[in-house]
Each structure stands twice: as structure tokens, then as C-alpha cells.
Amino acid sequence: MNSGKPLKYLVWVILGLGICLGVVYGKGLPEQVTAADLVLAIGDGCTVAALCFLSLGLLIWVATTGFFDIFSYAVRKGAHMFIPGLVRDHTGDYYSYKMGRQKDREEMGKKGEKSLFLAGTGFLFVSLVLVVVWYQL
Question: What pTM, to 2 d.p., does this model score?
Fold first, then answer.
């Protein structure tokens, strides 16, 4: 078993709890805090953490498919056009650039960040449970 995997999950959970606490404190609870107010604030924090993690995980996954290769190619070509002596342009045409990038991705074996998706899903589940509890209060 890879010892780095549980550490990834732990890092994402700690970061998510930090986001959650930041939202709870930033929301500004009233002086007379009721249980419903606290549950709602924690649920909002978990929702923000879940949406951040899920959207970032989705963006990372899309980036590993090569969807953004056209933009990086355009930036390289544009930078070479505006700053010809400073930027070396050895990319050739777009097809060879894309095939080179795809080969690099295959060699690296990068498939995305599952731990990020799972942490986001966990925070989303907790936020849904807290919304149900809030409606019961």
C-alpha cells in the first residue's frame, strides 16, 4: 500500500475544515447562537469546501485530458510573436505540439486527483446531512 495516499486525504480534509471554519467565522454569528444557527453555518462552510474541491478536481481532470492544450499552444506562439528573442519557439505546428503533450502525459501517468474528488464528495455529503438536521431543528 502506498503510504502517500492517506496523507493526501488527510491534507484535503484539513484544508476543507480550514475553509469551513473560515466561512463559519466570516459569516458573523449572532451573539445568542442557537443550535440551528450553528448547524446552518457549519453546513454552509462544508458546502463551500465541497464546491471548491469538486470544481478544482473537475478542472484538474479536464486539464489531464488535453482540453487546454490549444490555449497553451496559443500562449507560446503569442509570446514568441511579441517577444521573439526571449521566448524559444520549438513547438512546430499544433498537431505535433499536441502529440508531444499527450506523450508527456502518458509518461507521467497523471490521471487526476481522486483524493480531491472524494474529499469534496465527503464535504458535500456532510453539508447535505447538516441541511436535513437544520430543517429538523
Answer: 0.77
